[in-house]
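Handoff note, outgoing to incoming analyst
You'll be picking up this chain. Sequence as last confirmed:
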Amino acid sequence: MEHLIFEIGLAVLLMALATYVAGKFKLSAVPLLIIIGLVVGPHLPHFGLLDLRFIDSKPIIDFMGRLGVLFLLFYLGLEFSLGRLLRAGYSIATAGTVYIVINLMLGLLFGWVLGWPAREILVVAGITTISSSAIVAKVITDLRRSARPETGLILGISMFQDVFLAAYMALVSSLVLQGHTSIGSVATSIIAAMVFIVTLVMVGRYSAPYLNRWLQAHSEESFLLFIFAILFVIAGLSETLGVAEAISALLIGLVLGETEQSGRLERIVIPFRDFFGAFLFFSFGLNIDPLALGGAVGIALAAALMTIVGNFVAGLIAGKISRLPTRAGVNIGLTIVSRGEFSIVLASLAQTGGLLGIIQPFTAVYVLALSILGPVLTKNSGLVYNVMEWAMNLSRSGLSKQQVSGTATNPRLEEEDAGEGTDC
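Most recent structure output, in case you need it:
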């Protein structure tokens, strides 16, 4: 324990290097942070003071990763407020529902085919359903696609996912954290969680004018401390009541995002989100034995392929619902392929609840694959659309030739045509 601060410093240095490399090559930092966490850990040899096993500092790193979950979801709530989602309109609600239903059904089917227990199936379905808002937002910014007509729908689907995530995590946490198995106990737990969620949202929305006046009167220091006190106290209370702390962080962000202080909050929270968020991905990789990844690689890559296909179809349908061209539908489907922070949050929840150990390595490989492939597919969405159009035109032309050839060479058809001409 005497080198605890030094170990934390090494961890921060490794994360800094990973984010630097990601920025240099315009990549998402998420896969690199997970890889760094996978590479180091208890399996490495010990070289005196240079101890990359992080044995003594692991509990602190894990705790800072938990804070990363809170800050990531709190910031996301600030950025995509509940009021904006409610005002977004019918097309976003419909497109978001289509996207959720297609991916959730595929995830449930995937877990069922693997023969996993019900709780594991629910967790894996959530892991494969929710896209990474952080990666999606970064890709849109890097590729300068903010002005495209489909970008509003993409961000709308991301907002819709936030609300679904809160409800879904209420279900999963009641099963995983509290261990309820009977229909009655599960229903009771879900109702209690939803009552807590609705109460928090309603109290927050009606108290928004008072919060505005109260927060405006504070200095930056007291403002910061009060906001973090609200975040940690309510998140801790929700966990005590059996509701995942991540849900409360998201809801607090949604509520405070409605206040006039939302811009000030975002500016203050961003450094904490980035710092503790890096610990979340690093600690996730640190908790996985790289030697145990072998059994998860095949199923994780199969799940990644399933997600790409499901997203592609969902994007085309969402674009059609919103009356956007097919090219825009392709862009929608491929832009929201990436998986990241939310998948890791659900996998961490599964680890806390003592579910099957394969979920963590499965999620690591799955997130790594899609956090790398997602930006690449988004960048080349135009090429994917052109290939799809070429294949469809080739198929149509081939079918037309077969029809013409069949009509010209079929004597029975010729006789029928001739007979019809005689009758006339």
